[in-house]
Amino acid sequence: MKQFLTFVRKEFYHVFRDRKTLLILFGLPVAQILLFGFALTNEIRNARIAVFDEARDEASAAIISKIRAGKNFEVDRILSSYRQIEASFREGKVKLVVVFPRNFREDLLHRNKAQVQVLADASDPNTASTLTGYINSILLDYQQSLSPAAAMPYRIVTQTRMLYNPELKGATNFVPGVMALVLMLVCVLMTSVSIVREKENGTMEILLVSPINPFLVIISKAIPYFLLSLVNLAVILVLSVSLLDMPLNGSLLLLLAESSLFIITALALGLLISNTTASQQSAMLIALMGMLIPTMMLTGFMFPLENMPLPLQLISNIVPSKWYYIIVKSIMIKGLGFSAIWKETLVLLGMTAFLLLVSLKKFRIRLQ
Amino acid sequence: MQEIVIKTEQLTKRFGDFTAVDGISFSVGAGEIFGFLGANGAGKTTAMRMLCGLSAPSSGAATIAGFDIYTGTEGIKRNIGYMSQKFSLYEDLTVLENIRLFGGIYGLRDRQIKDKSEELIGSLGMGREAKKLVGSLPLGWKQKLAFSVAILHTPRIVFLDEPTGGVDPVTRRQFWDLIYAAAASGITIFVTTHYMDEAEYCGRVSMMVDGVIKALDTPSQLKQQFAAGSMDEVFFELARNSKRKADQA
Amino acid sequence: MADLLIQQLRKTYNKGATIAVDDVSFSVEQGALFGLIGPDGAGKTSIFRMLTTLLLPDSGTASVRGMDIVHDYKAIRKEVGYMPGKFSLYQDLTVEENLNFFATVFNTSVAENYSLIKDIYVQIEPFKTRKAGKLSGGMKQKLALCCALIHRPTVLFLDEPTTGVDTVSRKEFWAMLQQLKAQGITILVSTPYMDEATLCERIALMQSGRIMAIDTPERLVSAYPDRMYAIKAKDMSALLQELRHCGSLASCYAFGEYHHITFNNDNEVSRTALVQYFTEQGYKDLELKEIAPGIEDCFIRLMNYAGNSH
Question: Is CATH 3.30.70.2070 what the domain over C225-292 is classified as, yes or no?
């Protein structure tokens, strides 16, 4: 037991004496949260648009003022000819142009049908469709205020409710993803690098030629990173709940337990990498290429998995963070209990057991 | 009087409040074999780096191959060769590829490189190994090859940092044959070593202790001065009272 | 029973393409100081790694205090101390922290075996709060030795402990080894410096994975078949060049202040002829004297002999 504690203490010395790594360790989650929470959101604010109002009547004026009132748009310029539309897109300043044809109000009131042309810069398709969506809802709004009861005899009114995230905030999507990413990064990268460093420095040679059980060396490597990951997790949670209004609807205890499981999965993966590589560079490369990229791409928080081709969807099943991502969302946002996530938990457990088994099998009690 | 190619005047290097090299002054003539000896941590490596133009001195003056140590570092680098025990050649390139690469780095023309490679491989007797990877050669051959490559561009001075460490006794002597041949052609040799018999092969030897040059003379004069039977004893006499034992080399 | 018993040990790398250790056998008695002498690539480190159970041999057997290096690796690891060729301590831990750490690894404490390391440790004690990475070569080596001794091993393996270390530190280090030997510890040490060979009780001269000779340094030297002479003059390098072309010489090598030579037909006549020839050539201060050959002379002769027989 004393051996074990000494080992753990030594690992903490390594961690705390390496300032740069420490900075990455704790700076990374904070940076990620702020980046994903504020800078990268699905919501578009103050998009610059242009208006070409040939109608110049009450109706068009009312709609324009509605557009101006919202926080999504900023009317950058009022155009006076069709030719200017093309020109302003080319300049790249405006993302969207709304065109009201002549006699807009006349058509609307007397022929019961008026047209508005919405032109969007679709070089960025996501932004274009989001912006046209915003315009459509403004138009719909205006239409309803105009004739609440009258108009068409048959009408389907869609009542949309965005469950769990009524304000469509980006944070609810990203925070669980960032949690998966950061834990993966810290655990896989740091453990594998720290073990391989002992091989490179030759200290592993001395440790092997000692009565100490090599597994103890490995386990004691994992402990500090396990604890640091928990600290990291706490930082992420506090930041996201307080700063990004991230809900925590489910049980905190359950979340911590599931996170611990995921951390162990990641540590096991780090061990496997360190057992199969000989230099810090290759360990780092494998950890980054093999872990970080799949985590970003195939977890579901950056790109929806449902839209991916089948082979990628299948591959995503072996990415541990995919399952953790589902678990975190279920607990934090939907407020579900263990009964709803036992399957995912089982998958993670299975993965951990498999990884540990393989890395123990691969573990060498000698050099080479 | 022979031409002076290295001249230092009170050359000093400080790191914070630690003076690694403390006002060393000496000069080395063209074609001389100059042994630069010292205890671990005496400041040899730091001094060598300054002389090669890799690190700027804190104070003092020096001229290397006619170039000022502060303003002429580019000129210095063009006119010196460098070889150490640790880095010498690319192990994953063949003998010929290494020669071509370093010839190219020092701006030799293709024709020159071709002639020099043939000459060098012939003189080292490496005809059969020319197309082998350097990594597969025995250490002694690597070191001989590395030395030949370091003087490929006929520099004024070649700096050798423990070139014979770990090399077998026969190859070690062959290495010194190469050094003598280079010196005879006018190249100045500036060499460090831990083998005290090699100190005897130098024209003059300086002994550095705690950042200061404690003694500088021909091996026979040094032995006389310290009433010692061998260079080993001279070194021991000078270095045993070193105060700077604990500091990093 | 010998503490180390090595029989026909063989180790290759790259699927047999590189032969590191080629059919090596030797034994070391309890409490002896045995030296493996040879340049880099002689196979010394591979032998150390096999004996410390870090590598498996391709063939052959070896035992440490009667324990087999393949099957009894766990027991061996409890008993031996090992100092690898490369400095292998934690550079970011202090002197004290390193020592305490390794004491715990070996299930002991610094206090328990302090008497063994005391003489060495007092020399580095003033720097005990300094990080190991900031120590000089000689100090690092002393700390590494302390760490290797902390559990009072019965057999000590030191792989090139003095490489890259200056003469003063090397002398101090060998003095420490003599003290440890006096305590009854069996020591296997390797070195590329031939002059250190005489500090061992028995040595094996190694080259290219093979042992060329094993014996006490004294007997190896006295077994040198020819009489050896040292010659010097004013211009040593020119003298060397010309000596090489002398038909009457069997060998000629630079050895520091002198060149060492042996004659094909060693007699008064050939010696006088040599001196006369070089005096006539204008060499000043010519001196020729008979000397006792050293280990390095033996090594060179064995190397040439091996080279010719291949």
Answer: yes
